[in-house]
Every structure is written in C-alpha cells, then in structure tokens.
Write a structure and sequence with these properties.
Length: 411
C-alpha cells in the first residue's frame, strides 16, 4: 500500500509529540500508586490531605483573629506622691581628726575601735614627765622673781622715807621704782611659763572634743607622736544627727522653694544604690546659695536622726525629695498610656470583652504610675500588655480574669 507523501512528511513531526504525551500519564500513575500504598497503611491520610487543601471558612479565621489575649489593670484612686531624685553622699555634721597637741611617747590608748564616745571622754595619754620637769623649773623661776620683787619693794620704801631728809635723790627713787616694775613683769612672765607648762600637761590627756563614733586606731601605744601630726590618732564622726548632700536640677529650685514655703518642711528618704531598700527618712535642711554652672544643678542638704546607725559618712545613697502629693488622683500604670498623632489614649475593657479606644488627659507621673486628669474613672480596666495587636472594638481575653467579669468596673 502506497503511503501518502503528505502523510509521510507529517509523520516525523507527529511521532515525537506522541512519545512525550505518555509522561504525564506515567507521573499520575506513580502518584496514584503512592497514594494507594499510603492509604493502605493509613486510611485517614486522604481525608487529612483533602482537609489541608480545602478552603477554610473566612468567618472562622476572622473570629479566631479577633480574640486578643491581653493583661488589664483596674484604674485606682490614690494619693500620688511626686519626688525629685538625686544621687547623694552621707556627710557627718561634725568630723574631728584626733591629733596630739604635744610631742611625746604615747603611753595609753583608752578607746576601743568603733566605740561611741561622749565629749570629754579620755582617748589617749602622752608621757607627762618632761612637762612635769618643766613645770618645776617654771615654779622655781617664779619663786625667785617673787623674792626679787619683795626686795625691790622694800628698797623703794626705804628710798621714799629718806627722800624727806634729802638723803636720796629723785633719780634714785625713780630707778628703784622701775626696778619694782621690772620684777613684777618678770613674775608675770614666769607665771605665763607655768600656765603654758600646765596646759601642756593637760594636753597629755587627749579627750574627745565631740560625741560620736570613733574609727580605727592609727597609732599604737609606745610610739612617739608629734604635735599636730597630719595622720592623727583616730577620727571621730558624729552620727546623730547625720546629713545627706545631693543635687537637683536648677529648673526645680523654684518648685522646691514654693513647696518648702507652703509646708514648712519637706521629707527626704535615703535609699540604697538600686532604690530597693529604704535606709532612713529625714527632712530638708537647706538649699545651697549658688548653682553649679558646670552641671546645672544645685546642692541640697537633708538631715537624718539616724538613730539605728544605718547611714555612714561618705556612703553613697539615692535621695528622694517629696515635693508634692496629689490627693485622690486616678492612677494607672504608665504602660497603659499610648500616644497617637491626635491624642493620648488608653484601651478600656468593656463588659462584652471588647476594648474601647478612650482619649485621656494625663497629669503628673511618678515612676511607672500616671495620674489621669480626665477620660477615665477609678475601677475601669485598662489594657497594659498586648496593646500592639488591638484596635477599637477588638475582642479580647483578659488574662487572669474570668470571662464573665473581665469587664467589671468599665463605664
């Protein structure tokens, strides 16, 4: 049978397409065989596969997305204390370095290190024997001067009695009168030497000039101490009362002065470095008379009774000056306050477990607490966490609050 030339020409072009057409069928056969094997091992695999590719209801997805887990806290009515904080240092009202005023051997140390002493208590003794010898010499010189004075006075009396008989001249009488005066001056000098030596003897007994706590001993008995040695024997610091010096910004000076004029005194609390432990409470004593131009701050001095000795000189503390107290303020955490382009707002939880975007006007703040001037009343629940996922009327689930009470207090 003769073939058609046109068909013969088309045959090469058609044949390759027929060879390629069996590949999709082969792939589907392999996939069907695999599916059949998987179905044999797990009959539910087909249903799960179909469920994965089946379109989910849009309403179910939207409902799931609308419920946002959040944390909410009720606004409360409370007194909000406003503080000024400053880093300060504890300073003793009086600090004295105990030094010897005379030179000699240290015979005795009469105090215990760290002891509380009273003014006038004996602290140390210097060897007094060299000064006792000097006192004896000075007393002898005084006795000699007194004897010379008596002799000069008797001679003056004789000269004056002979003056009436013209047996002595006026010049001799004047000379004798001068001699008496010289003897009197010599006696005063000798008496001054005696007083000075006695004073040195008093200085051999070193006593406490103020009441306070004495520090560590700096010189041991047996050593020779020098007068006014810079190192000294010990240091006494007054602990009751004690002061704290700290700084505040210069812009707050007027505010502090007005508060001080209104109340008469301001409370200052001293805390440790991390502001977790309150050490003592005191009152504002004085404001410095000039601003530090390099830092733009002014020094403040507060005084503390320090009855329990919790404050030590040169100790670093954080001082908190109570400037003002806002009575009956509506207070919420600062984390609940959001700032938008138009206003400041909070999310308030409603009884139907939705949130309302509520514009508010904020007042003063202290730490993580903010006073609300208007827009919120006490006991309303405001959202503090999960805010970034919220919008007005969003559905929420308040953590830690049952669903039926999650909106209690909302207005």
């Amino acid at each position: 049978m003769l073939s058609d030339p046109a068909s013969a020409e088309l045959a090469p072009a058609v044949a390759p397409r027929r060879r390629r057409s069996w590949w999709p069928a082969a792939v589907w056969l392999v996939m069907a065989a695999g599916a059949g094997t998987a179905y044999y091992r797990d009959p539910g695999i087909v249903e799960r596969a179909v469920a994965l590719i089946r379109p989910q209801p849009l309403q179910a997805k939207a409902a799931a997305a609308r419920v946002v887990p959040v944390t909410a806290i009720a606004a409360r009515q409370a007194d909000l204390d406003l503080y000024l904080n400053g880093l300060g240092a504890v300073v003793a009202d009086n600090t004295v370095t105990i030094r010897s005023r005379v030179e000699g051997q240290l015979l005795k140390v009469a105090f215990r290190e760290g002891q509380t002493v009273e003014a006038g208590d004996l602290l140390a003794e210097i060897d007094p024997r060299p000064y006792e010898v000097q006192l004896t010499q000075a007393e002898g010189a005084l006795a000699r001067g007194e004897a010379a004075l008596r002799t000069a006075e008797r001679d003056l009396e004789r000269y004056q009695s002979l003056a009436d008989r013209k047996q002595v001249t006026e010049q001799q009488i004047d000379a004798q009168r001068t001699m008496v005066q010289q003897c009197e001056a010599a006696i005063k000098i000798d008496q001054g030497v005696i007083d000075n030596v006695r004073l040195q003897l008093d200085y051999c007994r070193i006593t406490a000039p103020i009441s306070g706590r004495i520090g560590l001993r700096l010189v041991d008995p047996g050593n020779i101490v020098r007068a006014n040695d810079p190192a000294g024997l010990a240091v006494i610091a007054q602990f009751h009362p004690i002061a704290v010096l700290f700084t505040i910004p210069q812009d707050e000076i007027v505010r502090v002065q007005r508060a001080l004029a209104a109340s008469g005194k301001l409370t200052v609390d001293a805390y440790n470095r991390d502001f977790k432990t309150k050490l003592a409470s005191g009152t504002l004593l004085a404001i410095d008379n000039q601003v530090d131009s390099s830092t733009g701050t002014v020094k403040i001095k507060a005084v503390f009774p320090n009855e329990d000795n919790t404050l030590f000189p040169n100790q670093f503390v954080n001082a908190r000056l109570l400037v003002e107290t806002i009575r009956g303020a509506t207070v919420i955490p600062a984390a609940a306050v959001q700032h938008g382009p138009q206003s400041t707002f909070v999310y308030v939880v409603q009884p139907d477990s939705t949130v309302e975007l509520r514009p508010v006007i904020t007042g003063a703040s202290q730490g993580d607490q903010v006073a609300i001037v208007s827009g919120l009343v006490p006991d309303e629940l405001v959202v503090t966490t999960g805010i970034d996922k919220l919008n007005n009327k969003a559905k929420v689930a308040v953590r830690g609050v049952p669903a039926k009470t999650s909106g209690q207090g909302a207005g």
